[in-house]
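Same chain as my last thread, 207 residues:
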Amino acid sequence: MAWVAFDRAIKSVEQFALQGPGDKWRDIRMKIHDEVCREAFNSDIGAFVQSYGSTALDASVLLIPLVGFLPPSDPRVRSTVEAIERHLMVDGFVLRYDPGASSDGLTGSEGAFLACSFWLADNFVLLGRHDDARRLFQRLLALRNDVGLLSEEYDPHARRLVGNFPQAFSHITLVNTAYNLSRTLKPAEQRSGHSAHYGGHASAERT
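reply #2:
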């Protein structure tokens, strides 16, 4: 998110002629990008991980291509998505992390974090896995209650919504995924900077 803050500030300077030390911010953005790529990708498990030096997966890294940090075509993105599919999915939904592998200071089990499941569907779209994206989206829609609302998490064992209810984050990601699946000009592609409508795929160096 630190990289995103600098990246969006730079784009505001470049696109809207706002005032700001663009050269300094570009240098910081590049340093953050280089450090994250060097320290946060665990080549042994083939995925970006929860923290530097960790072996624990965290589904928040699904945001990496969605915010434009790396293009969806980057092999590290693809392998990270595949690792999350193998290790953080329960009954077809995505856990934010494995509480057995990550000490969060809380007792009890962890439900599937619905925003992460929508992010996975968005990644499927960017990777060209449209059928997988639609199937996951339909499964998520089926979790809504009688008035169409979602909570923060879903307990795949008890088969019920859990956590904060209703959760705005879940509904925002639902809307984003719906747009990504239904529009030619997809929000995920626009934010990632890799839409064909914006001059093709940007390279990792430009991020």
